Amino acid sequence: MNSKLYVKLAGNNLKKNKSAFIPFGLSCAMMIAMFYMLASITGQVTDDMFYGARTMKSVLEIGVRICGIFSVAVIFYTNNFLMKQRTRELGLYSILGMEKKHIRKVLFWESFIVGSFSILAGLAAGILFSKLMFLVLLNLLNLETSFRFVISIAAIKVTALLFIGIFLIIMLYNQIRLFRLKPIDLLNESKAGEKEPKANWFLAAVGFICLGIGYYIAVSTKNPIRAINYFFFAVLLVIAGTYSLFISGSIAILKLLKKRKNFYYHKNHFITVSFMTYRMKQNAAGLANICILSTAVLVVLSSTVSLYSGLESVMRTRYPKDVTAGALYMPNEDEEENIYDMGLLEKVIDEQCRKYGVKKENPESRYSLSLLIGFKDGSLFPADNQNLSSMKIVEGWVLEDFKRITNENYTLKQGEVLWFDNFSGEEKQMDLLEIGSFSARVTNKNELGGDIEDYFTEQDYGIDEILLVVPDRETLAELSDAYTEFVYGDNTETLHPVEYSYSFDLNGDLERKTNFCNSLREALNNAGIPHVSIVEDIFTTRQEILGMYGSLFFLGIFMGTLFLLTTVLIIYYKQISEGYEDRSRFLILQKVGMSKEEVKKLIHSQILGIFFLPILLAVIHVAFAFPILKRILFMLDLSNVPLFIGCTIGTILIFFLVYGVVYGVTARVYYKLVNE
Q: How confident is residue 261, by pLDDT bands cut at 50, 70 and 90?
């Protein structure tokens, strides 16, 4: 056969199956465009472009990898739908005299035409909109830049190579699949799976158990470190449970509905239940995919929108005061005790304020010691990854600072400590505190609440907290050394030293405040203050945090769009595939007396049930995932729970609206197919 004939046959096939190939080509083009835009934007960001650019570039690079991997999976998945739908057509070619080598050439040219169109259209769209997306990202970061159109040759090469490779692998996969099938198999494969499946109660029970364990982990995990470690394990359990429930649990439920005679022997219920049961195994896998992708859309969008919207809350959680400067108190390493004149630190700050024309307000100062320790049943032990449930945050204060900050009137003698905590249990029976060589009598055991808790911690990380108040800074240094020996043994280097911190707000012009903050560390070092440690502020770090959260938000929109596109694509192809399969059945129903209006009503009820079951289960997944997501966001300093709730509800409502539009479109396509 002439090669031009193969091209002509391939073109005719594409025209005849345009309802399947056009959405496939357009969706591939959209994924190619999105990949190019992400790759192009990532390439345009340089480390010295602005403060926080390095962080943003790292986040975007992760997004490029995720987008590439996801594109491979989606294109392969939709290609299977296409091949499933066209197997009968290819079988007819073989029956009519075409050899497999001829059919393979037709498939090659079909893939070549669709792939070429997708890559060229996707690159064109990506080049056209990449600069717009870059400006959107910079606008999210509150950055100004001059518009300059740039075509990234490197991004074009990467995109073209990736998707050419994907289409070549698809061509090879289709050729191998065709080679292994006989003509009669091609004719019958499109009906594979129509044998009524049996209810697998064991697999259904496994699905419920997996979901239950995943939900329990999400709800019960309080420790934020465990939340991060357990999150992906819980996700895998929920995914496994979702597939098991849709594949086996749904069939089991349909079997139970069949046994309810009052429900089953109704003209609409009878046909709907019979149709769904007849091929539920095939149906269920698609529904499970839709449910999982819908959950991914809701989780990604609600989390990233919350982080970006709550940026100011994040900043104030991380920086309760505008500026914090501090120095380590390490008397064991210094011969002169009088070098620890912390009044000098305040004096240098006052001089810098006068120099840059800014005003210091609401100053606070204190000595503090922050530790992590294992504490259970009245016993202390070094904290490690094996004892996260018993880990406590311990912070030590000096009595003088405690009284000044909290306006509490306590007294302490040497060898005594005050104890405040936010948990209950046998630990409260401890009257003698012993950490290594440090020993002190606990004189007061009180709840950590009110003003004391506000000063002690700015963030609820889900870890139990203990505040110890000691008589003076020398005792605090002894506690530090004893803790180091207790945890690290012979390593006598003080890894957790006492720190003096001085925090305050700044009033003045933003440029002046920024210049003040940029020069503060150098001024403290030049003044001879020993062991200057922390010098941080809300002004110079804002852009870095905005770069990370803004790029996360931008990436979340990209990934959410990609997941949503995939969901719509799966729904569309599922409806087309089922429309072709149901056409003959509904034709028989009309021939035996069912009117077109009754058929349309039946179609509506069947599609409605199938459509909204995955999204309802996805909402349940999100509801159970909310507690563990909240803990993870706490680690990113987002403690505004009402904001997270509002963003999650808003995302769900918008997704329902989009989902409803998709339902309307695909229902019309399905109805048109079954009535042809």
A: low
- DSSP state letters, 208-275: HHHHHHHHHHHHH---HHHHHHHHHHHHHHHHHHHHHIIIIIHHHHHHHHHH-HHHHSSHHHHHHHHH
Among 225-239, 248-262, 500-514, 545-559, which is the least confidently predicted range? 248-262
Strand 532-537 versus strand 323-329 pairing type: antiparallel
**6 with 109: CB under 8 angstroms?**
yes
**Among 357, 359, 347, 353, which Cα is nearest to 526's?**
347
Q: Are 452 and 467 in contact (CB under 8 A)?
A: yes
**Type of residue numbered 272:** T
Whether 312 contacts 297, CB under 8 Å: no
**Burial, 153: exposed, middle or buried (Cβ in 10 Å; 0-12, 13-18, 19+)?**
exposed
Cβ burial of 419 (10 Å; 0-12, 13-18, 19+) is buried
- Supply 591's token pair: 């021939």
d(CA 661, CA 119): 28
Q: Distances from the Cα of 597 to the Cαs of 46, 270, 585, 600, 662, in angstroms?
A: 62, 17, 16, 5, 22
Mean pLDDT of 33-49: 76
Long-range CB contacts (within 8 A, 24+) of 384-390: 388/223, 388/225, 388/226, 389/223, 389/226
User: Could you give the CA distance from residue 214 to residue 217 in angstroms, rounded to a whole number?
Assistant: 5
Number of neighbours of residue 68 by Cβ within 10 angstroms: 18
| Distance between CA atoms of residues 399 and 470, nearest Å | 6
Q: Give the model confidence (pLDDT) of 148-194 as tens digits.
A: 557 788 888 888 898 898 888 888 887 777 766 665 555 555 454 44
> Mean pLDDT across the chain, nearest whole number?
76
Separation CA 186–CA 107 (nearest Å): 14
3 state DSSP class of 380 = strand
pLDDT band with cut points at 50, 70 and 90 for residue 580: low
Tell me which residue of 383, 370, 392 sits closest to 498, measured CA to CA: 370
Residue ranges of alpha helices (H) inside 382-449 are 399-406
- Best CA proximity match to 664, nearest among 598, 571, 586: 571
Rg of the Cα trace of the chain? 33
- Range list of β-strands (E), 280-358: 323-329
The identity of residue 290, as a single letter, is: I
Please, are residues 493 and 475 in contact by the beta-carbon 8 Å criterion?
no
User: How does DSSP assign 74-135, residue by residue?
Assistant: HHHHHHHHHHHHHHHHHHHHHHTT--HHHHHHHHHHHHHHHHHHHHHHHHHHHHHHHHHHHH
> Cα 93 to chain center, whole Å?
47
**Residue 246 to residue 280: CA distance in whole angstroms:** 9
Tokens of 577: 């595939």
pTM of the model: 0.70
Please list, residue by residue across 495-517, b when 16 or more beta carbons sit within 10 angstroms of its beta carbon and e when fewer do: ebbbbbbbbbbbeeeeeebbbbb
- Report the distance separating Cα 590 and Cα 675, nearest Å: 10
Is residue 60 within 8 Å of residue 133, measured between CB atoms?
A: no
**CA separation for the pair 157, 569 (Å, rounded):** 27
